[in-house]
Amino acid sequence: MGLKGFEHRLERLVEGTFAKAFRSGVEPVEIGRKIVRAVDAGRTLGVSGSAVVPNDIVVYLSPSDLDQFHSYVDALARELAEATRVHAREEGYTFLGPVAVALAADEALRPGDVDVVAEIAEGEGGRVGSLTLPDGGRVALGDEPAVIGRLPDCAITLNDAKVSRHHAEVRPYGDGFLVADLGSMNGTTVNGLPVGEQALADGDAIGVGSATIRFEAS
User: Fold this and answer.
1) 85 — alpha (psi -120 to 50), left (phi > 0) or beta?
2) pLDDT tens across 84-139, in order?
3) Distance from first CA to last CA of the chain, Å, rounded?
4) 61-83 pLDDT, tens per residue?
5) Is 18:28 a contact under the CB 8 Å cutoff?
6) Which three-class secondary structure state does DSSP give residue 179?
7) What is the pTM of this model?
8) What share of the chain is helix, strand, coil (3-state, %, to 5)?
9) What are the backbone dihedrals phi and psi of residue 213, each rounded to the nearest 5 degrees, phi first?
């Protein structure tokens, strides 16, 4: 799907709330095009033979453009990061660390100008992964296990009677991650099948109670 798919996703951002943020003429699609070009141009051959691409991205705008939608910056950065992950998945790219997009001001830029700097940044332990929650939130994975359960001390807290207090955890395993059931009452599934422990692959659906949590190796 490439650039066209990236643009289609970002075009949806100009609807509703985001439409108010871009009266200056700078639009998400324009920023998205710059990110795609920077990611594509920065790809390099990884040890496994796959294309490794930049994951640490900074978008520079003129101070006046950034000021006009300062209250939308965090939401826009999240959407741009998500679109970058999907673009990489469609193109078969891999990352060495979590995808992060930041927007910053550059005094040298004029209104309407966009500059993108994209670099490859390695994640903790040389592995990368995240969990996408049912509400669309995202939890980045690192060297510490991410516990899923009902208690507030869990990395992912689910208000569900079918979920045990400490139900399951996702922890580092080799150069990736695995999910392990923690002796829960109702069990844990991966792609609909019950598991005790199982290594996770990109796109795997972890079932905990009535919730589905998706693992992404990006």
Assistant:
1) alpha
2) 888 888 888 888 888 889 999 999 999 889 999 999 988 766 678 889 898 888 88
3) 18
4) 999 888 877 777 888 888 888 88
5) yes
6) strand
7) 0.67
8) 30, 30, 40
9) -115, 125
